[in-house]
Amino acid sequence: IVISRDKRDDFEDILEERRNSSDLRYALKCYTPVVYKGISPCKADALTNMVLQSSHLHYVISQVSKETGRAVDDVQDEASAILEEMAQRLQLSTIRFFAFTLSKVFKTLFRSICVNEEGIQRLQQAIQEHPVVLLPSHRSYMDFLLMSYLLYTYDLALPVIAAGMDFMGMKFVGEMLRMSGAFFIRRSFGGDKLYWAVFSEYVKTMLKNGYAPVEFFLEGTRSRTSKSLTPKLGLLNIVMDPFFKGEVFDMSLVPVSISYERILEESLYAREMLGVPKPKESTSGLFKARKVLSQNYGSIHVYFGQPVSLRSLAEGRVNRSQFSLVPRHIPKRPSEEIQNFVNDSAYMLVRAQEENMVLKPWVLLASLLLQNHHQSQAPGQKPGMALDELTERVVWLRDLSRQYGAFLHWPGTSRSADTTPEEELLSRAVIVLSCASYRNQALHVFLRPALLALAIHAAASTKKQEVFYSFSFLRNMFSNEFILVPGATVQDFEEACYLLVKTGALQITQQEVLVTERGHRTIVFLTSMLDPFLQGYQVRATHSWSKSL
């Protein structure tokens, strides 16, 4: 498989071997993963005992007892119940069952599952040296099953995975997930001090003892639109805490980019965004979803990024001596310095995920077709585009994407008679939103140049300072829409200028920003990329204004 950027690793299709050998033999293979510093991982029961006996949890139990007037034993029992509900019970027999079952499912659903084996080798080395935190992108329920499947395939230590309580309602399946390494957490803790203490101590104990790589999704939930979501900081704060307090020498943070040619839930996501209620997670719902097995979902690319040393990341940014002033077991609110560091690290890690997302041709096709669809809504415009014109525009966009650093993988239904107009409208809306989901996979490639293109249009001036003010305003407006690192406005402006000058779209002097004759096509395309989001904000603002009257 040829990828457009030489500096990135090559991929290997792991399904190729699965198609040519026994799935049962694969599931029952000798599994001897390398572990942290050669230490034999403790059993799940021993792990929970370590948590319940920790100084930190005993301190919080004492505090809760004093604040509520409850007996210490009563609070201790509640902590034990929380941990019982939360804890994973990883069992190799369950992993072997999933290995066999998922091999069958993956070979049916996907043409290929491609993995950068150099990234696997880097991860193998990292696991032996320091505690590891795996941070995959999150677009599908398939993500955490896929991650465990890959680590089992390559004889790596299986991760323990933070999962939402939703799955606990799935009889049998919820327990199977628990026995494959999932630990269950509430979507929000509110002000529940005891729950937070049990949860944080459980995660930190697993990390400090090298029990297993800890895996969670920085975005907190699945992205229904295929663009990255603003990172949630709670779990990242927890996993970094043992390093801040000197309980581990270092920690490896590994961003993982999972790119689907077609997401299993794409139609479901589109309907959710149109107001159709999300189906509740249940075992019966899982069996009803078996019809997906009759469809082809193309290929998956999984890219294990460079492990990021937390020690190197914090050097010069975090003064760890502040943690020596208070006993480790006493909870302490993170300082502003720590909060800023964790926030910046989270954005950096999500950007690392984005940069290694593999884009398929359909992503670029969807971007162009959506722009054409929007333009064809104007009076007098006919829908559709000639195949020759579409081909020429896709090739142009492919070359532009490459110059912007995109990671490209580029390989050398009619309406029924009894469909109502309402059903037809819903069907068309689902198609448009599904196309938008594909287009959104490429947004990170064009985002900064697109903001500059829109700023040039909005400023209606060639003066560099005015264009920068317009860029700053737009960047601030979209700060919760896209992954834009706080405080990096100047760097983003300079990056956008560099890319647009590099591709011949702009000429920039000390005082002016000028669009070149050949640059008009690029500027129009980039501006159109952000048009749907801009219009969405305009509709929201208009609606809010009219309601206030």
TrEMBL record:
**What biological processes does GO assign it?**
ether lipid biosynthetic process; fatty acid metabolic process; phospholipid biosynthetic process; triglyceride biosynthetic process
Keyword Acyltransferase attached: yes
Q: Provide a Gene Ontology MF annotation, just one.
A: glycerone-phosphate O-acyltransferase activity
Phospholipid/glycerol acyltransferase domain segment(s): 132-261
GO cellular component terms, semicolon-separated: mitochondrial membrane; peroxisomal membrane
State the compartments where it is located: Membrane
A Pfam family annotated for this UniProt entry: Acyltransferase
The record's listing under SUPFAM superfamilies reads: Glycerol-3-phosphate (1)-acyltransferase (SSF69593)
Q: What pathway, per the record?
A: Phospholipid metabolism
Any idea what this protein is called? Phospholipid/glycerol acyltransferase domain-containing protein
Q: Which InterPro entries match?
A: GPAT/DHAPAT (IPR022284), GPAT/DHAPAT_C (IPR045520), GPAT/DHAPAT_LPLAT (IPR041728), Plipid/glycerol_acylTrfase (IPR002123)
Q: Which UniProt keywords apply?
A: Acyltransferase, Membrane, Transferase
- Primary place of residence? membrane
Regarding protein family, the annotation reads:
Belongs to the GPAT/DAPAT family.
